[in-house]
Design brief:
By secondary structure, the chain is α/β, with parallel strands linked by helices. It folds into 3 domains: 12-114, Alpha-helical ferredoxin (Fumarate Reductase Iron-sulfur Protein, Chain B, domain 2), CATH 1.10.1060.10; 128-224 and 366-441, FAD/NAD(P)-binding domain (3-Layer(bba) Sandwich), CATH 3.50.50; 227-363, FAD/NAD(P)-binding domain, CATH 3.50.50. 39% of the residues lie in helices and 14% in strands. The chain has helices at 3-8, 18-26, 35-39, 46-54, 58-66, 72-78, 85-88, 100-114, 136-147, 164-167, 176-188, 206-211, 243-254, 278-289, 309-317, 369-372, 405-408, 413-450; strands at 128-132, 151-155, 192-194, 216-219, 225-226, 240-242, 270-274, 293-297, 321-323, 327-333, 339-346, 349-354, 357-360, 364-365, 400-402. Strands 3-2-1-4-15 form a 5-stranded parallel sheet. Strands 6-13-7-8-9 form a 5-stranded parallel sheet. Iron/sulfur cluster (SF4) binds at residues 28-31, 34-36, 46-47, 89-91, 98, 100.
């Protein structure tokens, strides 16, 4: 990567200094009924950790966060704070809400830098858990259950854990060193990681994991199959590709794992990004950093766009253009079956616009690798896994649980964590129950033998 590109991928917001963080913490009113907490999907004890920070008590601040979150350095950076904790802070009335995300990020980063955390960990004798996928949901289940005395192993198909955190979200929004540090903390809880293992392929599948003695299995496999536009003429032209593929390759390039020629974008190209969600914003902002002229094409209005507002505003400030109520009705070929232009349906009528390249960001759905190799896991018509309420998060196959995007459709990192936390409780109750039954059966068998 050249120096200009390196700079452009540096984190947009470097975060607070210690003086700034404590000064911000001291502004908190310590509300008796804290609205910020109500706005946080995982009900972080926000006023408590802010208070600990305001006293300079960093260890306490981190301990309070750890009670609710396994990924605070990540949430502090990528959560939609304006809608959640910060959006609910009473100081919004004065236009100066406490910057909760930046405070959380500061505490977690300080803890990492100083290696502060010293958690007392229980014996891992409560049961054996396999977690498939190491994105936000998988890491949350693994962290929560390891803290509760379960022996947890995560199986990851890529060569490094992190899922969407590592391969989807761009470096300028979430530096990979932050993701690695959070994963190391989860490893320090005693969680085992097995990378380059695609469960559902070769010899490893759900049945073989049960045979290996796992008491319960968690599917946190997300939505890895991007939606295509194959019914639109020209969708197979060279130059039309998936945003997720582009982002994956840019992240690998930033890491030095692949060369620049593997990144599907040349300097100065005119790029269209189709979609209006966070993946579209990530692709657009990444493409502009690589020297492209970028326009987002979204089929609905600005108000209906699902992307985080701050992401949209930053994209605009970085020079990304937006066309609302605009759909692509045809990808038009130039030489060598390469994309040359798009036919657009716009509020002003149909028009043809030149594009060198288009990235699709129109959603994704779950892969069926596990479901198709396992009997008894039911999915809905779109491939999302069906789960039950008791034990919470169990699929229609006994002992197999699921949570996060593979159940609830693509959501934010923190909502996947929230769902996973609830499923972790369901799994703990399930494993405790089967262990109790096993123990009762043994006693009964002993009784019969003694007679
Ligand atoms: Fe502090 Fe705002 Fe939460 Fe009140 S709502 S406790 S002021 S962060």
């Amino acid at each position: 990567m050249n120096t200009e590109e390196t700079n452009s991928f540096q984190a947009v917001d470097e975060g607070f200094t210690m003086i700034e963080a404590i000064a911000e913490a001291k502004k908190c009113l310590q509300c008796k009924v804290p609205q910020c907490r109500k706005g946080c999907p995982i009900e972080n004890d926000i006023p408590d950790f802010i208070h600990a920070l305001s006293m300079g008590n960093m260890g306490d601040a981190m301990r309070i966060i750890n009670e609710k979150s396994n990924l605070p350095a990540i949430c502090g950076r990528v959560c939609p704070h304006e809608k959640q904790c910060q959006g609910h802070c009473v100081m919004n009335k004065k236009g100066t809400p406490i910057q909760i995300g930046k405070i959380e990020q500061f505490i977690a980063d300080f803890d990492t830098a100083m290696n502060l955390t010293r958690e007392k960990l229980p014996q891992k004798d409560r049961g054996k858990i396999a977690v498939i996928g190491s994105g936000p949901a998988g890491l949350t289940v693994a962290g929560d259950l390891a803290r509760q005395g379960f022996n947890v192993t995560i199986f990851e198909g890529q060569d490094e854990p992190g899922g969407v955190l590592m391969y989807g979200i761009p470096e300028y929004r979430l530096p990979k060193k932050v993701v690695r540090a959070e994963i190391q903390k989860i490893e320090a809880l005693g969680v085992n990681f097995e990378c380059n293992v695609l469960v559902g392929e070769n010899s490893v599948n759900v049945d073989s994991l049960f045979h290996q003695g796992y008491d319960a299995i968690f599917m946190g496999t997300g939505t890895s199959v991007p939606q295509n536009m194959d019914s639109t003429p020209g969708a197979k032209l060279r130059g039309v590709s998936q945003s997720t593929y582009f982002l994956h390759n840019v992240n690998s390039y930033n890491e030095g794992a692949i060369g620049r020629d593997m990144v599907p974008l040349r300097d100065g190209e005119k790029v269209g990004v189709i979609g209006g969600g966070n993946v579209a914003m990530d692709a657009a902002r990444t493409a502009i950093r690589l020297g492209a002229d970028v326009t987002v094409l979204y089929r609905r209005t600005q108000e209906e766009m699902p992307a985080i507002k701050a992401e949209y505003e930053q994209a605009v400030s970085e020079g990304v253009k937006f066309k609302w109520n605009t759909s692509v009705t045809e990808f038009i070929a130039g030489e060598n079956r390469r994309l040359a232009a798009c036919r657009l349906s716009t509020p002003e009528g149909e028009l043809v616009e030149r594009f060198d390249r288009v990235f699709l960001a129109i959603g994704s759905r779950p892969a069926n690798r596990i479901v198709s190799t396992t009997e008894g896991i039911e999915v809905d018509e779109k491939g999302y896994v069906k789960v039950v309420e008791r034990p919470y998060g169990m699929t229609t196959r006994r002992g197999v649980f699921a949570g996060g995007d593979v159940v609830h459709r693509p959501q934010t990192v923190v909502l996947a964590m929230k769902a996973a936390k609830d499923v972790a409780q369901g799994m703990a109750q399930y494993v405790d129950a089967i262990k109790l039954l096993e123990a009762a059966k043994k006693v009964e068998e002993q009784h019969i033998t003694d007679k």
